[in-house]
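Hi support team,

I'm opening this ticket because the web form for multi-chain structure prediction keeps timing out on my end. I have pasted the exact lines I submitted so you can reproduce it. The total is 1138 residues across two entries, so I didn't expect it to be a heavy job. Is there a limit I'm missing, or should I split the entries? Thanks in advance, R.K.
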Amino acid sequence: MTNVIANPYTSADWNVLYPLGIVALGALAVLFVDLVSKKHAPKWLTLALAGLSVIGAGVVCAQQYGQNYDAFGGGFLLGGFAVVMQELVLVAALGTLALYATLGDEERMAGTIALLLWSTCGAMLMAGAANLMTIFLGLELLSLALYCLCGLRENAIAREAALKYLILSSTASGFLLYGMALLFGSTGSVALAAIAQAPVAGNPMLWIGCALFLVGLAFKLSLVPFHAWSPDVYEGAPLPVTAFMSVATKVGALAVLARFVDAAVPSAGAEKLLLPLWIIAGISMVAGNLGMLAQHDLKRLLAFSGIAQVGYIVAALAGGGALGLRYALFYLIAYTFMNLGAFAVATAISTQAEEGSRLANYHGLAQRRPFLAAAMTFFMLALAGMPPTAGFVGKILILSANVGAGYAWLAGLLILGTAISLYAYAKIIRAMYVRDEHAHAREAHPVSPLAWASAAVCAAVLLVLTFYPLAPSNVIPLVR
Amino acid sequence: MIHHVMGVNGFYPLLMTLWLLPLAGAVLCWTFGPQLKQLAGWLGAATLGTSFVLTLLSWSAATQNSGGALGAHQSLLSWIPGFDFGLLLDPLSLIWTFIITGVGFLIHFYSIGYMHGDKAFARFFAYMNFFVFAMLTLVLSDNFVGLLVGWGLVGLASYFLIGFWFERPSAVAAARKAFVINVVGDVAIMFAIFVIFTKVGALGFGDVFANASQLGDWVFVVCVGLFIGAAAKSAQLPLHTWLPDAMEGPTPVSALIHAATMVTAGVYLIARCAPLWSVSSDAQMLVGTIGALTALVGAILGTAQWDIKRILAYSTMSQIGYMIMGVGVGAFEGGVAHFFTHAFFKAQLFLGSGLIIHALANEQDVRRMGGLMKKMPFAFVAMLTGVLAICGIPGFSGAFSKDAVIYGALAHGHPWLYAIGLITAGITAYYMFRMIFLTFFGSYRGDVDPSELGIRHPELAGTPAHDEHEPHEHDHAPAWIMAVPVGLLIVPTVFAGWLMFGEHSWWSQFFSAQFAPEHTVATPVSDVMTTVFAVAAVLAGFAIAYLRYGAPAAMEHAIERLRTETVRMPGALANALYFDAALDALFVRTSQLLGTLFGRLIDPLVIDGGVREVALSARWLGTLVRSFQTGLVRAYALILVIGVACFVAYYAIAGGVH
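Hello R.K., no limit was hit. The queue was backed up. Here is the completed structure from your submission:
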């Protein structure tokens, strides 16, 4: 008698993970090539392999569009939402590769890129994760690779950043895991949908489980007051890693949050259960923008900006309406390109010796690099939500969703935050256009064509988004 | 929601062309500047001339009125549902377009002479054309978003042009100041727009005004937000300090942007939002008062200036104060009328002063002028007509519009503003004739040692006496290029006011369908008597100016008198009533303080690296240990734990209630 353990999963389940598998294989291929090379794999080869795997994953992922399948017993929900989120993560990865092409050194390229690709896998897993197990798996895969990426620089600040990230993020992961345990304990299931079925009344275990789960996510999203790590880590990490973190981490965590709000929240107590989330989103919008005022470093500035931007996106989910979710997705897509674009400009003006992140590097940029200055202005205006940019469209949409769902106070905080933020973003624009004594001291140095092109592509996508704002959100189906 | 459109929908190719032509001109001048050389100026002027002709050809379309839809509306693209992007040419925007393209054309033409030989000749025209495009976007937009886009773009063009001679540190500082103050305004307008959208759910002018009642009590907030924006752009108290400094730009820029068009954008905004203003009497009171005070303060400061362009700058501030007072109290027709006439006579004054500055190799200090009437009779005639118009001598254009504004304040129930308006008229006459006497009468003082005139630091008193980037003495363009626009401007400077003459004037016919009938109160004084009072005030101001600067006795001791006046100038006047210092304390310092304060709350590492606690070590372990010891990570962890505690407490209570 043989004891056959039946494999519960069919090939259909594994097919769902093709895009993820391609990226993971890409990581292995990069390492393998480096191993068999005499000294180090050539930079271009590493990047080409990685780029190919990311693009390949994107193509395969796009072909899954329109399919709906609950893979792994509900662990990974394939659907329009997962596809769009995975594509966003892949865009972030591709953008980061372009930045590495400019800034990375050959010696560490293969290891770095492999870590980046694994981190991408984690975020992609989060995009479709629908039970507590896969959520945690994705989150940790994303984070563990990022800790290493942050510290991969011969630089004390980078190490400090990695360490802070590791310590604080692990603490948050602990909270998240504890919350998950409580949720599992109160429902007896790891599926998000099971939480929605659980009785709300007289079930403190469920409530506290939700609290800790949301804390964990809020930390990954760096919402105030769980934000303290992000400016330091953004500043310390190498520029491409910061760019990747500012987009991919947020896309992954927002995907989980959106799915949680959509699927896991019991309709009976929804308003009460999620209120703290909206409150910290509101606080983040204002506090994040206030925090920008004192900054003199683009990376720190964008860290605070990211705090506020995520606040806007989370606020769009308030009310739980289908419309709010679409608008949140629209804003998230726009945010991805604004941020990547800004980092591309920063990379373009960087040299091997000095990252172009200090505000002083932007003085008089309009004279030296009119295109880059114009593109940066466009990204800053978009982040600030000035018309006629996609950022403005997104904010208007979020406002209407908030007001429609009866969260006028969130709309008010959004307006207040926007007003404050214009000051901070204008600081960069002013530095670029108003000439001053620093301008003469800085020589224009050659600009990496790839970073230049990345900025151009981001600007072009944003322009399209600006004037056809409803096109993507019409294509994006609701959470599934 | 029913879609309300102001204007008759249709296809208006002329309208689109007149809007886009200046942009094309800017792109061409920018791209082919080195090849075009002097042709860039002609190209820039030609595009504006064509736009002006197209404006005239669009006249009937702009004034058509069918079924309550006034003017021409051209849809450009659909954006967010219920909100389209388009152009609207109705009587109000037509008047602005007329001035922007018409006066803009003359100033461009003049600039061909004035900027002749400047090394960045083509760049200048590219900026100027770009400015015109931005300004047209502002006034032709059919919605608040397009208006704000134009609003931002004119600001951008403005500080490019203020800082045009960027080798001068003072020009750079002036551009920076204009930038900061304009950001304040942009934020306020954006705030108002968000409130409008939140409350009304639309951003097209037609939709918003048709549903203005949905704003409820918020209409006051919206009006204040819009007005702060208007005040920043239109140099109203206390956001006016950038305008005198903006005179660092070339004189044609001062004429076009900082006198005739851009600085009146605030007037346009309020007139455009007349349906909002007319339902908020609080907003009317506030805006009317600030306008009147600006008129008064501008005039008072105008009496203490020595730089001819700064005199004109303060007079601009003062005259825009009149306009804002007019549209603020609800006398929209009068306020817009004063914009219309002011554009002519102020452009005239600036271009006239440009003739003098150009001829005297960039001397701008009136103490070092004098007796120029014989040398420059044409400039004298040009300046004199401008001064007569700005003072409101009956028959000249300014008289009709200014008296309409002053009387309008009374008719809308604001006797105090009426009084301020009359007093300001007197002061205006004083400082304007002071300028005329100092510049054109007496004997030439340019060869007198500056210290004898009380000028202690000649290089600080005004702009540098000789600037290599300004046109050179030996390389003049033909004189007629600069003379023709000035000569042409004399015609409307003198006669434009007659359009507003009489009970059923052409002007009130023109705007009959634009503005709702105004609610006026019975006035103790008639409009004719108002003119009489105003003339009396002007004569008084003239008399004082004559006694102090024009009388033979005063002329004889001009040098000693000027020295005494310079030395004994009260500190408050010499320092422009300390507005700069106050603004600095209020905005710059406060924002720094706020930044630091909130920075400390939100970000323990406020100043990058400055207070970094973690001793950086080359070793991992060292860093690890130290970062725990020195507390930064602990502080972060503490924040985290407190946050978690709050969260858990809430959920425990909320979950336990059931």
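A quick check on our side: The first strand of chain B starts at residue 8 and ends at 9. Let us know if the file doesn't open in your viewer.
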